[in-house]
TrEMBL record:
Alphabetically ordered keywords of this record: GTP-binding, Nucleotide-binding
Coiled-coil segments on the chain, per record: none
UniProt entry tagged with the keyword Nucleotide-binding: yes
InterPro entries: CHP02058, Tubulin/FtsZ-like_C
Taxon lineage: Bacteria, Pseudomonadati, Pseudomonadota, Alphaproteobacteria, Rhodobacterales
KW Ligase (keyword) present: no
Name of one Pfam family that matches: Lin0512_fam
Protein's name in the database: Lin0512 family protein
Organism encoding this protein: Albidovulum litorale
Length: 114
């Protein structure tokens, strides 16, 4: 069986003053997850652990994101995290650290069919 993508959700997260790329990414993932309450695995009569979860995070400094912190957000399933250049750093007028905006795309797949 080949995995079939069944759901994609998007989210955004920020770090307003600390320039914490990991925290912005975690907030983006949580934002995406909180947008739905679809019990996808149960819909197909499968355990939640069977879900293949592809997480793509976009931030301006991908090397400053701790992927383990993102993985820790998921209580079940098989998450895989990819961090790419994206998102946005918004300069502050007072000269402080820029506001960090992270974007997340979460796709959930299951092995379905014969």
């Amino acid at each position: 069986m080949a995995p079939k993508r069944l759901l994609t959700e998007f989210g955004m997260g920020t770090s307003l003053r600390r320039q914490d790329y990991t925290e912005a990414a975690v907030r983006a993932v949580k934002d995406a997850l909180w947008h739905n309450s679809i019990n996808l695995a149960e819909l197909f009569g499968r355990p939640k652990g069977d879900m293949l979860i592809d997480v793509e995070i976009g931030v301006q400094a991908p090397d400053r994101v701790n992927s383990a912190a993102i993985l820790a957000v998921f209580p079940y399933g098989q998450p895989k995290v990819t961090v790419v250049k994206g998102g946005l750093d918004v300069p502050r007028t007072d000269g402080g650290k820029p506001t960090v905006i992270a974007n997340a795309a979460i796709s959930v797949s299951l092995e379905v069919g014969a």
